[in-house]
Design brief:
mainly alpha, Arc Repressor Mutant, subunit A, 9 helices
Amino acid sequence: MARTLDEIRDTLECDPQAARAAALRLAKLLSSAAASEQVYARGGLSPWQERAVLRYMRERLARRVRVKELAEQAELSVSHFCRAFRESFGTTPHLHLTRLRVQRAKSLMLTSRDPLSQIALACGMADQAHLSKLFRRAVGDTPSSWRRRNMPCGGS
């Protein structure tokens, strides 16, 4: 950039056209640098924030998790956190947490013979009906029929 600025200064009096071309190059350089800074400023969560938030979510699947708690993990305000989370994960914190809970429920259904009501509570859902509603929405099938179809022979 400094070299381009020197070029503009040197050619300004003797070759105004070359000075103008150099000035345009400098303006383009400055605007692309500003644009890249702006994109970074509007980005999502940093890698450490993503790890901290996901770890917090996974460790607390069985209980209520508030967005304020997640924002505190990332050291951000709630509004800034929600925007950055959506930028990073393409969804809201609530929907992401629901997906994690459904994944956990699938895992528990395949590795235990626990009743669905107990699995629902272990995954942070209010009851079996809540599990069924969220599971059907995410997977397209009821938990009991999904479990029957995917349970290994003999079960565990």
